[in-house]
Amino acid sequence: MNNSQFSELVNKFDVILNIKGLAPFGNGHINDTYLVKTAPADAPDYMLQRKNHKIFKDVPGMMKNILITTSHIRNKLVATGEKEVNRKVMTYIPAKDGQMFVNDNEGNFWTLFLYITGCRVVESIQKPEQAFSAARAFGHFQQQLADLPGEKLIETIPNFHNGISRLFDFQLSILKDVAGRVSDNQLLIAKITDRAVEMTSLQRWLDDKTLPLRITHNDTKINNILFDHENNTLCVIDLDTVMPGSALYDFGDAIRTLGNIAPEDEPDLAKIVFNKDIYEAFAQGYLSEAKAFLTPMEIDNLAFSCRYMAWEQAMRFMTDYLNGDLYYKTEYQGHNLVRTKAQIRYLEVLEENKEAMEKIVKAG
Ligand code: GN1
Ligand code: MG
Predict the structure, then answer these.
(1) How far is the CA of 132 from the centre of ligand 1 (A)?
(2) Cis peptide before 267 (omega within 30 of 0)
(3) Is the CB of 26 under 6 A from ligand 1?
């Protein structure tokens, strides 16, 4: 897409912009994001994002979810006298036709939202204080949405964190073996399969209502929180998967990236080490917000949720590898296999730390 096509697209939104430049932004695995710089220098900048409609099959429904949740949070911020509302919740710009997206000639869906000035994305956390604030931000996000009726939201990706359905997809990818990658990876496959009975218990507890359904974020990687330059959290972003889910998904997924010192695709497995101090700070920060609404069953399973999310993610990466790399963006041949191995190693590290992790939650 050239610059004039980009400005044509941006012009379909209900805002007048003097575009100065446009550049790719961030490193999400699913959508494509661009920063739209505007003039004069003090005018707000925007983020233009192409939603991946092969993965999000109902983009209008997803954008409706996002509008409902951001409006709900915005109303609360206004009611409590928050002065910087636009820095504490995402602001999506409607199109001139009133929809929350515009289409290009190829049928892609584009959205526009306000760039939050003075924000920072972090890919890993070294300081426990930062983990504590990140956890409070995620806990607070769940709490802000706790009184929003779940039936108002659609499932933007059905069965997104449903371990039973993810396991089914994994087994199907093994049976089909379209890329001929199964025979070389029997050991990894076994490591995932061996844990299936324990791991699918989370879904069984949701099915029999031992665990409650809430509105959750479902993609609580550390890079989905914005910080300011003083390390204060500003707001939770990447709301595509906000939908009914378990609070355990959010806690577990955060520890999946935060508790691991190494990147998600670290090829040197020896570098995958669990950062207990970060985990402890995160658990304390999360409980300081969430203890008020979590059930004892949820609290008892916070440590387990970390192993669950690592298992599920390992299985998702492996499924994609066996399917011939169709889902996640990959940067090189075998990238999904490297991610799988790193994720399984992290799962083993979490298993080695199981007792310590449970003790920390009990103390919190
Ligand atoms: C994807 O797009 P991104 O990078 O925020 C994925 C998450 C995975 C994550 C793994 C919609 O998130 O579920 O945990 O990659 N999002 C979707 O890094 O599948
Ligand atoms: Mg993201």
Answers:
(1) 22
(2) no
(3) no
